[in-house]
Write a structure and sequence with these properties.
Distance between the termini: 55 Å
EC number: 4.6.1.13
Mean pLDDT: 92
Low-confidence stretches: 1-27
Organism: Oleispira antarctica RB-8
Largest sheet: 6 strands, mixed
Pfam families: PI-PLC-X, Ricin_B_lectin
Number of domains: 2
CATH topology of the largest domain: TIM Barrel
CATH superfamily of the largest domain: Phosphatidylinositol (PI) phosphodiesterase
Oligomer: single chain
Catalytic activity: a 1,2-diacyl-sn-glycero-3-phospho-(1D-myo-inositol) = 1D-myo-inositol 1,2-cyclic phosphate + a 1,2-diacyl-sn-glycerol
Protein name: 1-phosphatidylinositol phosphodiesterase
Radius of gyration: 26 Å
Structural class: alpha/beta
Number of helices: 9
Length: about 475
């Protein structure tokens, strides 16, 4: 059994006695910068952030927020890693997960080491399936491994897994390569396989977890090992940013053993979201060169306390700095993620802006049949409702107009670039001239024929939107809305 406690550390503990109240005054100050959260609720609302990401990017070219020991919500400070449920994590924007299963009684119970959680793998698959059904632009990746000891089974790990996937595995991505594009895995979940065996089709169950370039220096000897942990995290962030773009990187911010998991990611004296930081026992200017990335707080007459800082805050700050701007962080796994941590990672992906395209004559929105993009669904007008399927993102480089409900689908002129030609939805292909558009003022024109424009034929809901000769009337004028 591991022992967790706030350890003192020899000379540094003595140093704390000399610094007295000044050295530990930070304990009285609340600290909440939104990179860490111990609240039992969704910390953000980012259910479809991947809709704005270029679907041609491969997994290795993405920056993705993730959680370590995703389902470890119970068992106290020593073993707890999360407060949000899986559904809340998905809503907040987390897209990579760490699923640890104990194979027992021919079932997979979610575990953290010896500690059983109150959930099973079918609960995990149900939550993921529901989320992807509602958010087809997204993908979900999860590490899958066997945890603790197997007990009372009459079938192998993969035989049990096959039963789960037969019931709820329709959205599993079946491997075709070792580094898929986002478009290949939108609306699907991807298993990061950390177990032996093959699926019934003879292929792996997903991507190899072992092939990922990882940093997971989790063993903390004392709280004072936190700076070494941060250094490992920072080095791996830089490795991902500057490394081979065909390599998938994963960076664990978490730690345990000689420190509580919440302390490693927050630097806090207790688990609360706004709890004060712990002091290191060092002060400046005497120890000015120590722990340079840790904050200097509670300054008085030129002497400042050096406080601990958690890896969530340090990472959120580091990737937001201009020196890291537009870098690729890879999969970044942590405990108790906060809104700022999640959204700073999302921003690294250069997320596209999706907005309504409104007809100047009626104020109605460019829409299509139904609510889910699919090949052949015809373009039409409809009252604007601030919904994903009425929002579009224009890529000036390719000329494509992506739909937010599923960015893998684009506006397409059906190969009819002439007056009376139709417009519908089709799977995006940047080399397909039917999907290449130019904005000329407020006119939207196919690149294949600059003498015709997108035209709203009528005024009512359901009126066809097609192509017609340029006349610059209000029904050929389109403006960006919400």
């Amino acid at each position: 059994m591991k022992t967790f406690f706030i350890k003192t550390m020899g000379s540094k503990a003595l140093l704390g006695l000399f610094t007295g109240v000044l050295g530990f005054s930070s304990l009285a100050s609340a600290h909440n910068d939104a990179a860490y959260s111990h609240d039992y609720r969704a910390v953000a609302s980012n259910p479809s952030w991947m809709a704005g990401v270029d679907g041609n990017k491969r997994v290795s070219e993405l920056s993705i927020p993730g959680t370590h020991d995703t389902m470890s919500i119970r068992a106290g400070d020593a073993w707890q890693n999360q407060t949000m449920t899986l559904t809340q994590q998905l809503e907040s924007g987390i897209r990579v997960f760490d699923m640890r299963t104990r194979h027992i009684n021919n079932r997979f119970r979610m575990h953290h080491g010896i500690i059983a959680q109150d959930t099973y793998f079918n609960d995990v698959l149900n939550d993921i399936d529901s989320f992807l059904a509602a958010n087809a632009s997204e993908t979900v990746l999860f590490r899958l491994r066997s945890e603790h000891t197997s007990e009372n089974n009459t079938e192998s790990y993969t035989q049990t897994l096959n039963k789960y996937l037969a019931a709820k595995g329709a959205k599993r991505w079946v491997p075709t390569n070792s580094n898929p594009t986002l478009n290949e895995i939108r609306g699907k979940f991807v298993i990061l396989q950390e177990f032996s065996g093959y699926a019934p089709d003879g292929k792996p169950y997903g991507l190899s977890y072992g092939a990922i370039d990882k940093q997971d220096d989790y063993a903390m000897s004392t709280n004072w090992a936190l700076y070494d942990k941060w250094t490992a995290v920072k080095n791996h962030l830089n490795k991902s940013k500057n490394g081979n773009r065909n390599t998938i990187y994963m960076n664990y911010l978490s730690g345990a053993n000689g420190s509580f998991p919440y302390f490693v990611v927050s630097g806090h004296s207790s688990p609360g979201t706004s709890a004060p930081r712990l002091a290191t026992g060092l002060t400046t200017p005497g120890w000015n060169s120590s722990y340079p990335d840790f904050p200097r707080v509670s300054c008085f007459i030129g002497i400042c306390t050096i406080a601990f800082e958690g890896t969530n805050t340090l990472t959120a700050n580091y990737i937001a700095h201009s020196a890291y701007n537009s870098g690729i962080a890879g999969m970044v796994m942590t405990d108790f993620p906060g809104k700022r941590f999640i959204e700073n990672l999302i921003r690294l992906n250069t997320v596209a802006d999706y907005r309504e395209l409104r007809d100047a004559r009626t104020g109605k929105c460019l829409d299509f049949e139904g609510v889910t993009p699919a090949n052949g669904k015809k373009a039409l007008l409809w009252d604007c409702a601030n919904v994903a399927w009425q929002k579009w993102s224009y890529d000036a480089k390719t000329g494509l107009l992506h739909n937010k409900a599923n960015p893998a689908y684009c506006l397409d002129n059906m190969g009819q670039p002439y007056a009376g030609g139709g417009i519908h939805m089709w799977q995006c292909n940047a080399s397909n001239v039917n999907q290449q558009w130019n904005f000329v003022g407020n006119n939207l024109r196919p690149k294949a024929n600059g003498y015709i424009s997108v035209d709203a034929y009528g005024r009512d809901n359901g009126s066809q939107v097609g192509l017609w000769s340029n006349h610059d009337g209000s029904n050929q004028q389109w403006s960006w809305g919400n």
